[in-house]
Amino acid sequence: MKENIKIWLKEGKQSKITKSIKKLASGFSGNDFEKIEGILNWMDRNLKRCEDYEKVLKIFATRNIDKVLKNGFTAGCHDNALVFATLCRAVGIPAKYIMGIDKLNPKNKGHCVVEVYINKDWIIVDQNSKTISLDIKRSDFYKKNFIVGKGLDSWGIGIKSFKSWKEKSNEVIRIISKIN
């Protein structure tokens, strides 16, 4: 069955494409790869990472895209994936928000990346390391992580706080332990 790519251009409750997002997105031009590069460079220049661990735990997955941009800082890969996926959609690139948990240390570590649809194929962009994997099945992300969810944003996959992240990741760990 062929996937409907257009659903990955929609907005989620956390990733609404507002007038301010459209205005920001209008500054990214060129082909899809040039737009991706522009978005990543903009993020690098304009968003700082919050280094206060207690604050990160408090705000994890609680802010929408407008709030993250207004605050000017991220709580890590989760917020970075939210910003990157939303801006990709705003420039017309279908994007999936992907959340995973580390296969070697699932109780304490996770990572978020974005799959984008370019040239009739899905590729992975790790917005934190600015790396692109053209072969999803052989990407480091899929080799190193169990998938917690794929969606338009974290709220769409049921992650709205650090507590819900722990609950969802523990659910995945329980399922995997039954299989193994």
What low-confidence regions span 5 or more consecutive residues with pLDDT below 50? Answer: none
Mean pLDDT: 93
Largest sheet: 5 strands, antiparallel
> Going across the major beta sheet, what is the strand order?
6-5-4-3-7
Helix content: 40-55%
Q: Specify the CATH class.
A: Alpha Beta
CA(first)-CA(last) distance: 29 Å
Q: Treating each run of at least 4 consecutive H or I residues as one helix, how many helices?
A: 7
How many distinct beta strands? 7
Q: Please state roughly what percent of the residues sit in beta strands, choosing from under 5%, 5-15%, 15-25%, 25-35%, 35-45% or over 45%.
A: 15-25%
What global shape is seen?
globular
> What is CATH's topology name?
C8orf32 fold
The Cα radius of gyration reads 16 Å
* Structural class by helix and strand composition: alpha+beta
Query: From N to C, what is the helix and strand string?
Result: HHEHHEHEEEEHEH
Number of domains: 1
What would CATH call the architecture? Answer: Roll
Would you mind describing this structure in some detail?
The protein is an alpha+beta fold and 180 residues long. The protein has a single domain, classed as C8orf32 fold (Roll). The chain is 41% helix and 21% strand. It has helices at 19-25, 32-46, 53-59, 65-71, 77-90, 140-144, 162-179, and strands at residues 48-49, 73-74, 95-102, 110-118, 121-126, 131-133, 145-151. The strands form 2 sheets. The protein has a 5-stranded antiparallel beta sheet. The protein has a two-stranded parallel sheet with strand order 1-2. Helix 1 packs across helix 5. It is globular. The mean pLDDT is 93.
